[in-house]
Amino acid sequence: MSSVTIKRWLLKPFVFFSIIFVLKSLLAWGVIFEDTQFWKSVLTEIPFVWALFFLIERFASKRKLGYYMTVNLLVTAIFFAAIMYFKYYGVIVTYHAAEQVNQVTAVRNSVFSLMDPYYLLIFTDIIVLGFYFFINKNGRNYKKDKINRHNGRMLHVVLFAVSLGLCLFNILPNKASMNEIKKAQEMGILNYEAYTIFAQDKPELVEASEITQDTINQLKGIDASAVSPYAGAAKGKNLIIIQLESFQNFLLGLKVDGQEVTPNLNRLMEDSLYFNNFYQMVGQGNTSDAEFVVNSSFYIPPQGAATMSYVDKEVPSLPRLLQASGYQTATFHTNDVEFWNRGELYSSLGWDHYYDHKFFGDEDTFFFGASDEVLYRKTSEKLKEMNDEGQPFYAQVISMSAHHPFTIPAEKYKMKLPERYEGTFVGDYIRSQNYADYAFGQFVDELKANGLWDNSLIMVYGDHMGLPIYSLDHDDKELMKEIYGYDYAYANMLNIPLLIHGQQLAPQTLEQVGGEVDIMPTAASLLGVSMDNNIHFGQDLLSQSYNLLPQRYYLPTGSFIASSGLLIPGNSFEDNTQYLLANGGHTPAGTEDEYTRALRLRQLSDSYVTQLPDKAPAEE
Fold first, then answer.
1. Residue where one domain finishes, among candidates 544, 560, 588
2. Is 403 annotated as a binding residue?
3. Active-site position among 76, 287, 522, 557
4. What are phi and psi of 238, to 5 degrees?
5. Is 287 annotated as ligand-binding?
6. Is 287 among the catalytic positions?
7. Which of 67, 202, 358, 371 has fewest C-beta within 10 Å?
8. pLDDT in tens, 386-419
9. Is the peptide bond before 405 cis (omega within 30 degrees of 0)?
10. What is the mean predicted confidence (pLDDT) over 349-375?
11. Is 589 domain-assigned?
């Protein structure tokens, strides 16, 4: 075969674009999957684009090249979205993410801060071909070439059927896989995206009448006869819950070349109940999901954020529970209440009042609203007003200044980083959390000054991770290894702190496993408020020694954290991977029974919340 013949063959749109997509699939696989296999990516991704190409060859009589370019652009966009979504969330993007387009746009700086320049190579051919075909004279002539003849139409139909069959061959045997990332790798990214659109299997609902607290307790392994030594210890006290943005547990007690990163929280830790094996339980909604889980003791929904899936329901909640005991309730957040649909969330949870951007204003603004200094100053003033009204209150305070990508203004720097931390993601994270700690210290001083500190039960926790493993480059991973003394792992990533401070509580470190779903029942127990009439999936952390926490979204379906460790299933339980707890040295030993119970707990939570009564329409 002559070189001219080879060149003509390679320049045929079908062949040319097939080669292009082999290269693009390899780039996407190299970012997303740990073990990129050349032939695996080709055999799973190429049949999908070939099916589209054979349709073009069969039906396009004109502008065939334009159709190839359109397919090229659309499929490239899917690959690029998969890359960037994985770098930000650690999961495979699906069509459900379209529900959060406005939110993703709002955090675009965070998303694109994770982009390595070589990711843009995926668009190289589009730019070059666009210039060649639409601007260059030779390219315009090429478009007019005789590529529109449709010889062998029946052959194209047969080849389309074969390509579609190969797609189904990749999809059908892997439908039952529990691990979404493994499922996407076995099916191929493009096949997986199509599968999620067309499958849309609705989860089987359990009748609400069958969902009892006894059933939940048995699945969780709760000892119902156990009583917390601190039950009712804070009865009649105010409750102040502080949610720290992106705050991971390793920050507490951390020193960088002798400098304390969180001196104020360290002092609180030494004077509080400190849970060092406490874990996030959020999903796509991140901060807003944490607000939902903490205030409802339910799990996040199967898809999307709680603020999109559950806000049409009247949700049994901590605000409602405490209102029945004479409390007034309010939540404080410097961002606009419509971000992540929080206005509807707060209505569903039954808050008496919320204070957002309209209350805090534009003073000292960065990222999404006023700084934490403004948040805490104005909140403390409002809490003093509420306290002076003569009835106890529950207030949740949402910090925001240490938000991804953690590039706070230079005037907010409160510590000087060593040279090896400068210009790194980990360094920016530590510096932003150092500022968040500084602002938190001011809040503590203000609460003490206005007499609220000693008259309140204070609970402080991190809402979600700040340093996802899949977002770290080599230098960042080395810094994390320096901090931990070993390789940064999944349990470390999900590990957030919980601090509980009250005058009647003896300071100590507790290694009991807990998650955000446990905050509501633990707070209720300390305040002496019964939860007998509230279905809940958390537990009083001060009365139990065992816990089972189903995980979702940031870990594959079927993952769980328990006193036995962290377990991530593969295609099923049998090929699972297990990890130590963040602060536990025992060999992980998660069992199939725990795996089955975790899946059942998720199903019960999904079923119960889905069948809750719709909330009353807002009064106009």
1. 544
2. yes
3. 287
4. -65, 155
5. yes
6. yes
7. 202
8. 999 999 999 999 999 999 899 999 999 999 999 9
9. yes
10. 93
11. no
